[in-house]
Amino acid sequence: MSQFMQPSIILLRDGTDTSQGKGQLISNINACQAVGDVVRTTLGPRGMDKLVYEATKATISNDGAEILKLIDIVHPAAKVLVDIARSQDAEVGDGTTSVTLIACELLKQSKQFIEDGEHPQIIIRGYRKAALLAMKRLEEMEVGVDALGEGSNGRRLLLERCAATALNSKLICRNKAFFAPMCVDAVDILDKDMNLKMIGIKKVTGGSVTDSFLVKGVAFKKTFSYAGFEQQPKKLVNPKILVLNVELELKNEKDNAEVRIDDPAMYQSIVDAEWQIIYEKLEQCVATGASVILSKLPIGDLATQYFADRNLFCAGRVTGDDLDRVCMATGAKIQTTTNNLPENCLGSCELFEEKQVGGERFNFFTGCTETKTATILLRGGSEQFVEEAHRSLHDALMIVKRSMQSTKVVAGGGAVEMELSRYVRDHARKSPGKQQLIMLAFAKALEIIPRQLCENAGIDATDILNQLRQKHYVNDDSGKWIGVDINNGGVCNTFEAHVWEPSANKLNSIASASEAACLVLSIDETVRNPQSEQAQMQNRGQMGRGRGGGAPMSAAMGGQGMQGMAQAMGGRGIRTLKGRGGK
Hints:
- There is one protein chain.
- By secondary structure, the protein is of the alpha+beta class.
- The chain contains 19 helices and 19 strands.
- The longest helix has 23 residues, at 383-405.
- The model is unreliable at 542-583 (pLDDT under 50).
């Protein structure tokens, strides 16, 4: 009897809502499918773009990771797809839409099993087994640079074709023959680490996109300058370059600063000391023999005129990334003081020049002795176009980097996915029990890539998939590279069509998509606290006031809630809401 007298133990705060069981799992799957529907139409060369408008900024893009980042998904399970898209973008650079679609299709195929009462762990086990088989087959299919038969130019051709394939689905796909060699040249300049931060992309609005060019060195936009800048030289041959992190201007006294003196004549000595300090710094800079002085901190009007009188060039407030690239290219070393500057701290290049590019002026350092960095000046007619071209070039640079690290490629156009689907399907038929059905579902999910490529191009997906299955389900490997022919509306050998992708791209896509699907399937309960959510919404509303934030949705749409709806209907309002629960 004592067991019924024990007090109840409350684990969760009052108002906390818990959802668990089959309904909760299906709800998470539906949320992930909604995310997949957002980016579904952006896949492939004929994919559509999305316009995301927030506040005063409009972004036009078909990059899956960029779109998912901008739409601000709040569903906790759906955020898993955002994470795998970002990781794919950071790891490989391309294939963000593909990895999202494969994960969504895996969840969609598992939904029927969940509704039929299958345990999620059995599905997870089958998916992981099928993913390992697919990755094993992919490693067998990959083609190295030596097997291409292109001779000494094989590596260069492989890199250019991989970059061109990455640009196929981008806004600048018509200019892929122009940008693909540029991306390969830019990555080829880097050192063994291949840090893409050493490739600066400077955006200049105006002109044609084909006016873009590569600088084998450093170029950055002219910084803020004081009077006397016009008298400085705009072209120097074989200059010595001094890079500082020092402020070269007279410092103003801080607020409420106080200097007490006994004799008024001492005031002039304080002023003279300030001038003497700045002049000593300037003299020390000139004594190094440097012709170009760059600083991350401001260089004032006094220092600007001082250097101009001595036929020297100076620039202050240079960004940290640009200074790092100048040091990498010229061999200079950033100094935090002007005292006792060593001779080896100076960098050098063959030519320094300030030139006009569009409506901006840029400083160019070319012919650098230790060139390990490059700059791409990107032109375009509108700001949105230039931004999307920037994202496209980033994806292409990442693909070239991965291709350099592992010179093994596979064919694109859905050929790989169809071959992996066939391979997994063949092994599934040899598996006993429930695993057979789950592995068949995994194989069917891989067909989403060629199917979506057809739908986005306006081609009959059912007809094309039947042709692909016919080509791939042969005894030999003659049909393993048959994929979707977007241009002619049929099927073709995409490897011979030079639609190449790094094998690391596909390996990462399958691994990430299967793990994301297994992660969502392993969630059986969601605990949420409405009070904390309400507090977050109130904070957002307070932060967003002044531009419509925090207002009810009906008011944000221009209405006044139910009262506005009643006025719109002539004042009669809505008296009853009839339905299944209505009276």
